[in-house]
Amino acid sequence: MQYIINNAINLGVNYIDTAPSYGNGGSEENIGEVMKERRTEVTLATKSKERTYDGTMRSFEDSLERLKTDFIDIYLVHS
């Protein structure tokens, strides 16, 4: 999967959108492996299905960890 993400960036993709529910967190983990080295090359978006402050913050922190970054450019409400 990381080969595909790296190749997409090499070919000019500069926006990546994911969510914790995609692959039960696996999507964020795969993207995170690439973001360790290439974070500045893309606009990164993820989202939360949570509807409370505490739930959203927990989801946000978990996403930061899986994505191996300290910031997310766009954070959306899912569904």
Tags for this entry?
79 residues; alpha/beta; 3 strands; 16% strand
Structure in words:
This is NADP-dependent oxidoreductase domain-containing protein. It holds the Pfam family Aldo_ket_red. It comes from Natranaerobius trueperi. Residues 4-78 form the NADP-dependent oxidoreductase domain. By secondary structure, the protein is an alpha/beta fold. The chain has one domain (2-77). The protein is built from three helices and three strands; from the N terminus they run αβαβαβ. The protein has a three-stranded parallel β-sheet with strand order 1-2-3, with helices on one face. α2 links the parallel β1 and β2.
Order of helices and strands: HEHEHE
What fraction, in percent, of the residue positions are helical? 40-55%
Task: Identify the quaternary structure here.
Answer: single chain
**Arithmetic mean of pLDDT:** 97
**Radius of gyration over C-alpha positions, nearest whole angstrom:** 12 Å
Put simply, the count of helices is 3
Number of DSSP strand runs:
3
* Domains (count): 1
The biggest beta sheet reads: 3 strands, parallel
- What proportion strand? 15-25%
User: Termini, distance in Å?
Assistant: 25 Å
How are the strands of the largest sheet arranged?
1-2-3
InterPro entries: AKR2_Oxidoreductase, NAD(P)_OxRdtase_dom_sf, NADP_OxRdtase_dom
Protein name: NADP-dependent oxidoreductase domain-containing protein
Pfam family, one: Aldo_ket_red
Organism: Natranaerobius trueperi
